[in-house]
Structures are given as structure tokens and as C-alpha cells.
Design goal:
Elements (H helix, E strand, L loop, with lengths): L7 E2 L4 E4 L3 E4 L3 E2 L25 H13 L4 E3 L8 H10 L7 E6 L1 E2 L7 E2 L3 H15 L4 E6 L8 H13 L3 E7 L3 H8 L6 E3 L10 H9 L3 E2 L16 H9 L3 H12 L12 H8 L6 E2 H8 L10
Parallel strand pairs: 4-5, 5-6, 6-9, 9-10, 10-11, 11-12
Antiparallel strand pairs: 1-13, 2-3, 7-8
Helix pairs in contact: 1-2, 1-9, 3-4, 7-8
Pfam families: Aldo_ket_red
Keywords: Oxidoreductase
Protein name: Aldo/keto reductase
Length: about 300
């Protein structure tokens, strides 16, 4: 009989998003492929306002991500005012059946430091049409409502995405930065295949959403999944566990997310091919029950937003 210190588990490497779209459980977030060398060290503070200064390098990273097995690539119309979607298409189109692209609508960018929800149904439909053109597809694999806009009923906002799905322009619908109650309300209008919220070892304010998603077969897609906080220092628990299993702290943080729930699909982003390889090989990292519990004890329920 094994004990909790030796009972290790490598979680499933794939998840059937929406029941029929199989993706590897570490995807690639393209948001950070923007703004060039002026990008601030803290990605959460980045304006994501312009295309990358080194476009060829960004294209190479996207292609390497797919080459290494990431088959869910995440972008948004708000990233660099649509230029991020164009970058994804330049790098990866034609996508074939092996690559799925997720994008988002519902946020306007009047200035680099402004991210303003806009949920007018006509605007959401317009932005989806533009996303189709920029990504060069006839159907979006996964379309998120980037933020719920309190100025419009949830049923109207989600209903706009449902209409697009009925027209064959969207395969699956997602929501971003929502609560369990908002998720339940949205599900009254359309089936929700994915939720993308801020979540990592240090930002655990959406634990209840992770559990709700798991119970209902919904993909939980954490953004900024490796923002581990001060406890990720060289003398912290994350580094300690990383040394025990022969992994890096980033891989250990991702392994914890994968073990947290079988429906979790992190989308770490990077402009570095070395970090990209490091992130994607976290699928091979196994944590023991004791190590998982030790890491889980780090988190405090703190809300967050991008």
C-alpha cells in the first residue's frame, strides 16, 4: 500500500472541451506577444497595445508552441487592437484539425491603459465577424465573452454569442472573469464550454469556480497561471517541491494546476522559446499527494482581474 508521500499522479494530458474538442491541457496564451521590448516586467501591467517589435520572433514562438504540442492558442480582439489575432493567423493559418483557436470579444480599448467592457449584442456580433476575418476562419473554435457588461442583461450578451453559434460561426462559447452565480445565469441562455479566470497558486479567489467547472464538465482556463507570488522564492515551498521532483518552479506551479482539477487547462504565455518548452513539458511532471497538499496550503482566497 502506497502512502501520500509516494503516491504520485500525472493527470490526464488532454481534455474534451465542450465534449467534442480535444485539447492538450497546457495551451498557449498569445497575449504577451505584443508591445515589443517596451513591455513592462509585470505582464499584468502591460498595455498589450501594439504588435511585437520583432514580428518574426513572435511568429516563430507561435509555430514552436504548436510544434511542441500546444493545440489550444488563446488570443482576443482587444490584444493590440486585433493585431494579435492577425499575428496568430500569420503564424499558424491554415490551422488544420490539430489546432484550435480561442478568442474573445466584449472589451473596448480607447487608450493603452483602458479595458472597458462593452456588451451591446450588436457590438459583440460585429467583433466576432472581425475576428473571423482576422483569424481567416469561417468558424471560431471557442469564443469568450471577455467581460460581462453590467449595462446589458446577461441573457442578451450570451444570447449574441448563442446566435453566432446557431449561425455556424462559433463552435463553443466561453466566459471570462465570472463568478459561479454569473456562470449559472449565463448557462440559462447557452451552454458554456469554458471559463477563463485569473487563477494560480497565489491567486485563489476563484476556487469555487474551479470546483463548479469540474462538476459540470466545463474547461477552467486560468490566465497568468504561473504568477506565484513571494512564496515562490528560492527558499519557498514551490522551489522546495521543484527540487524534490527535479522540475522548475514554473513547471511545479503548472503541475499543481493540472492536479487541481482534470478540467483545468492553463494557457501560459511567453515570448521565449526556452520558457515555452519549459511550460509545455510540465504535462510530464508528477506530484505526490503530500506535495500537492503542501502546495495547496499556500493559497489564500484573493480575488483578481486582469
Amino acid at each position: 500500500m502506497t502512502n501520500s508521500k509516494t503516491n504520485t499522479l500525472v493527470p490526464p494530458s488532454t481534455f474534451a472541451l465542450g465534449g467534442d474538442l480535444t485539447v492538450r491541457r497546457i495551451g498557449f496564451g498569445a497575449m504577451r506577444l505584443a508591445d515589443g521590448p517596451e513591455r513592462p516586467p509585470d505582464p499584468a501591467a502591460a498595455p498589450i497595445w501594439r504588435p511585437p517589435a520583432d514580428r518574426a520572433a513572435a511568429v516563430a514562438v507561435l509555430r514552436k508552441a504548436v510544434e511542441l504540442g500546444a493545440n489550444l492558442v488563446d488570443t482576443a480582439d482587444a490584444y493590440a487592437l486585433g493585431a494579435n489575432e492577425e499575428l496568430v493567423a500569420e503564424a499558424l493559418h491554415p490551422y488544420g484539425d490539430s489546432v484550435s483557436i480561442a478568442t474573445k470579444v466584449g472589451v473596448v480599448r480607447p487608450a493603452p491603459d483602458e479595458w472597458i467592457p462593452l456588451g451591446h449584442p450588436a457590438y459583440l456580433r460585429q467583433q466576432a465577424e472581425l475576428a473571423l476575418r482576422r483569424l481567416r476562419v469561417e468558424r471560431l473554435d471557442l469564443l469568450y465573452l471577455h467581460r460581462l457588461d453590467p449595462a446589458y442583461p446577461v441573457a442578451e450578451q450570451v444570447g449574441a454569442l448563442r446566435r453566432l453559434r446557431e449561425e455556424g460561426k462559433v463552435r463553443h462559447i466561453g466566459l471570462s472573469e465570472v463568478t459561479v452565480d454569473q456562470l449559472r445565469e449565463a448557462a440559462e441562455t447557452a451552454s458554456i464550454a469554458a471559463v477563463q479566470n485569473l487563477y494560480n497558486l497565489a491567486a485563489r479567489g476563484h476556487d469555487d469556480v474551479v470546483d463548479h467547472a469540474a462538476a459540470h464538465g466545463i474547461a477552467f482556463v486560468p490566465f497568468f497561471p504561473i504568477a506565484m507570488g513571494a512564496h515562490a522564492g528560492p527558499d519557498g515551498v514551490v522551489a522546495e517541491v521543484a527540487r524534490e521532483i527535479g522540475a522548475t518552479p514554473a513547471q511545479t506551479a503548472l503541475a499543481w494546476l493540472l492536479r487541481r482539477s482534470d478540467t483545468v487547462v492553463p494557457i501560459p504565455g511567453t515570448s521565449s522559446e526556452a520558457h515555452l518548452r519549459e511550460n509545455l513539458t510540465a504535462l510530464e511532471v508528477a506530484l505526490s499527494d503530500e506535495q500537492f497538499a503542501r502546495l495547496s496550503a499556500l493559497g489564500e482566497a484573493t480575488p483578481g482581474a486582469d
